[in-house]
Amino acid sequence: MDVIPKWADAILIPLISIILAFIISALVILAIGEDPINALQLMVQGTFGNSAGIGFMLFYATNFIFTGLAVAIAFHARLFNIGGEGQAMLGGLGVAFVCLAVPWPHWTIALPFALIGGALFGAGWALIPAWLQAKRGSHIVITTIMFNFIASALLVYLLVEVLKPAGSMDPATPRFPEGAHLPRMSDILGAVGIPFSDAAPVNVSFFIALLACYLFWLLVWRTRLGYEIRAYGQSESAARYAGISPTKIILIAMVISGALAGCMAINNVMAAERLVLNSVEGAGFIGIAVALMGRSHPVGVLLASLLFGFLVQGGAEIDFWTNIPRELIVVVQALVILFTGALDNMVRVPLAKVFLMFRKREA
């Protein structure tokens, strides 16, 4: 039996990892001659001090929820999907095709079709590495990394040579029709008399992301398929003995993973009302850290996404008001990934000794 209780594994270890990452980041800030306490205050005030800051944080968190869930479902099948970035890019292409294909009368009609388009394109892009892993033995990490570069090159070609409006110098699609414009949080809350900043880009996609968390939980812990995915992730030999097909699990888990990454495009493409280059902005890679910190559980993914949304929005604030470069936030994110991933045992082993000591005393 594991010495560390489940609550400590889910909450305490990630919390300690975050604290260690922030301590080292504070030392870096001190080294460049700035006040880390002031920097933290600016981040908190700039994020939670007004509805615009909260809105930007939730907008970034929405992206990270989708990509975090995408990585998490693959983790449950013991697959390391590093292709969320490329799958989200192709998902954006699917959303753009859907939004531009029809003069949509209303967003409530356009949104389900855009979701399907983003999911299909993301799933299709993940299916190829999945098939190569299941049928040819190609390592999923290598193929998904390579497919990120292919997706980027493909998107550049399409935006520059095919989808760009005639006479435009901007590598982007035309604006989506009015009926494909998603309502922002200010519109939703304003309808019930709650004021919210019009400048905040957070929109109805945030609620879709919350629904995705719930559906993820239902799939993984309340369905036979979810049990098979978890069983395969725990032991491939035991899963084979139980009659579970590894090929089936690899293909299905990766397709679901790609679909979740592709669904991110409703937030960063459909809400932006056009597809532009670099619309993903690294959210596919941040999803890896989100899944690691969230222990591949939807509640953990949600909380980790909010944290990274806070880091991105707070980073913009300290970049504007101090001499601290915004790139320092990338350092903080890297440290969080380092402690929650590669250095997980640095926290886990001493904590296990502490819990073991308390158990011996109780005995």
Task: Specify the structural class.
Answer: mainly alpha
Helical residues, percent = over 70%
Tally of contiguous helical segments: 16
The helix-strand sequence is: HHHHHHHHHHHHHHHH
CATH topology of the domain at 61-305: the name is ABC transporter involved in vitamin B12 uptake, BtuC
| CATH class division of the domain at 61-305 | Mainly Alpha
β-strand percent reads under 5%
Mean pLDDT: 92
Give the CA-based shape.
Answer: globular
Question: What is the number of beta strands?
Answer: 0
Sheet with most strands: none
Report what the structure shows:
The protein has 363 residues and is an all-alpha fold. Helix 4 (84-101) packs across helix 13. The chain has a domain at 61-305: ABC transporter involved in vitamin B12 uptake, BtuC (Orthogonal Bundle). The chain starts with 5 loop residues before the first helix and ends with a helix. It is 75% helix and 0% strand.
List keywords for this structure.
16 helices; mainly alpha; 363 residues; ABC transporter involved in vitamin B12 uptake, BtuC
